[in-house]
Design a protein that fits this description.
This protein is of the alpha/beta class. It contains 15 helices and 12 strands. The strands form 3 sheets. It has a 6-stranded mixed β-sheet. A 3-stranded antiparallel β-sheet has the order 1-8-7. The N and C termini lie far apart (48 Å).
Length: 514
């Protein structure tokens, strides 16, 4: 039975579920719904695009740096590694994976999908509880690291992650940290993957698979952190900031579009049949704890000269994407401004209702009126919520983050439930959860003893990387613009709704070049 609109029969069904579960559950919850994703319920963007019919996306392929690295550097000799706790402590497995976060990176949130029953109930309860309407995403498993994957072509056809921490658009960016897979090397790994597809699937099937897959590119930060800002080789005296950003944008364009380098035997994504591309802009690293410490920021104010350079890069990159869309009419390439999305969180920190269930077993939030309980054990994918009666009593111990509920309803006489809860919004926007020194920006995150207890109310996880909570918000914006319109000319949800059709001429050109 579908619950496509909020109707009276649906109200009866939900009421029956609530009543029956209250009667027979020993824990006495109000209702139980199974979810497969975190819930960020604070939507500030009134222009969120309506849900679109899902179109099959065969795979998600990720190219980039530490912002999306899922374990590539675990196999490399480098200082840029996140294969130790407390990294990954709030991930699904509660173990370090190589992700530079306490939990997930943005692409992890784009992979998941809600089941049909949960989606149906969310659509009807959303009116009251303001649940995330951007439920339907790609429905894919986490893309494994290219260096850590099994080698099975069937697994590779579901997606791969080539990203490497320390990598930049410039080959040598981040080299002082040790080994990494540069941008151009990642592109070559992509081409090697395509070769395996052709040998296994055949030319036509491989071309169709690649053209309908999504390619997510998030790279460029290290070109500033490890090259331009430290003035390596006197680069600042040779290039003004706008000249440097234009060089980076043109290099990115060459890897996507057919250029004169094709005559020299160079290969690029468009030639390889890639048609769906998400190009991420850079986050405001001038607000990162490392630079707040280095520049001795007062009261956590962002370093404007650094952010201005990032703004220039994002402006040029967005214009470059617009050019690509005009030149490559059969491709869908979108630019997503991570700076805009991050600054929206920073400036409106109190308006984001934090509900990251991976970091604490339960969350309390005021959803509908003043007496609404929402608790979640996300590890078991269980979310319990309901409206408490007017005779319910809520006792809050803010120091220990505990909330005790005393029920006086007919079915729950003097029943007490105590659980952890999170405060709404981001309390710490300048200090990293894990690190050492002022703003925890002097030394990188090395041990669990350097980390805060609750990362959900922090914007930054370590010196340069945001928390999983922020990554989820940014992913929501990339997918549908739920909180802030970040992507142009469309969001990812709209992009994947447009199926790519390949002509025989394109397929033949692809097979000849491969």
């Amino acid at each position: 039975m579908e619950c496509s609109s909020f109707s009276f029969p649906c109200i009866q069904i939900i009421t029956l579920l609530i009543f029956s579960h209250t009667m027979f559950s020993s824990v006495k919850p109000v209702a139980v719904i199974h979810f497969s994703e975190d819930l960020y319920t604070r939507s500030r963007n009134a222009s969120v695009s309506p849900p679109l019919p899902p179109v099959p996306v065969p795979a998600l392929y990720v190219i980039g740096d530490s912002s999306v690295d899922c374990g590539t550097n675990n196999f490399l000799g480098t200082l840029a590694r996140a294969d130790h706790l407390p990294y990954g402590r709030d991930f699904d497995t509660h173990r370090p994976t190589g992700r530079f976060s306490n939990g997930r990176v943005p692409v992890d949130f784009l992979d998941e999908v809600l089941d049909e029953m949960s989606t149906c109930l969310l659509e009807n309860l959303n009116h009251f509880f303001r649940f995330n309407q951007s439920a339907l995403r790609l429905g894919l498993p986490f893309a494994p690291s290219y260096l850590g994957q099994s080698g099975s072509v069937q697994d590779m056809m579901r997606g791969l992650n080539y990203a490497s921490a320390g990598a930049g658009i410039i080959f040598s960016s981040g080299s002082e940290l040790g080994q990494h897979i540069s941008f151009s090397q990642q592109i070559q790994q992509v081409m090697d993957t395509f070769q395996q597809f052709i040998l296994t699937m055949g030319e036509h099937a491989a071309a169709d698979h690649i053209s309908n897959s999504v390619f997510y590119i998030s790279i460029g930060t290290n070109d500033f952190i490890h090259y331009y800002l430290p003035d390596v080789s006197g680069v600042q005296s040779k290039f003004f900031a706008w000249m440097f950003t234009r060089f980076l944008a043109q290099t990115m364009k060459q890897e996507i579009k057919v250029t004169h380098k094709k005559k020299l035997g160079m290969f690029n994504l468009y030639n390889a049949n890639v048609r769906r591309v998400v190009v991420m802009g850079l986050a405001p690293i001038g607000c990162a704890p490392y630079y707040l410490w280095q520049y001795n920021s007062q009261n956590g104010e962002c370093i404007k000269p650094i952010n201005n350079v990032i703004l220039e890069f994002n402006f040029v990159m967005r214009y470059t994407v617009e050019e690509l869309n005009k030149e490559l009419v059969d491709a869908n390439i979108i630019f997503c401004d991570a700076y805009a999305g991050s600054m929206d969180i920073l400036k409106n920190k109190d308006q984001y209702e934090n509900a990251n269930h991976r970091d604490h077993p339960c969350t309390f939030g005021k959803r509908w009126g003043l007496n609404v309980l929402e608790s979640a054990n996300h590890r078991d994918h269980i979310c319990t919520f309901g409206r408490l009666g007017t005779k319910s009593k809520i006792l809050v111990n803010q120091r220990d983050h505990l909330c005790t509920l005393i029920f006086y309803g007919e079915q729950m006489i003097n029943q007490k439930v105590t659980f952890l809860f999170d405060f709404a919004g981001f309390t710490y926007t300048d200090t990293a959860c894990c690190g050492l020194g002022r703003y925890n920006g002097w030394l990188m995150c090395l041990s669990s003893g350097m980390a805060c207890r609750n990362a959900t109310n922090h914007l930054w996880w370590d010196q340069f990387h945001p928390t999983s909570a922020v990554n989820e918000i940014l992913a929501e914006n990339v997918w549908s613009g739920l909180h802030n319109k970040m992507c142009y000319p469309m969001n990812m949800q709209q992009m994947v709704a447009q199926r790519v059709k390949m002509s025989d001429d394109v397929i033949n050109r692809f097979s000849n070049q491969a």
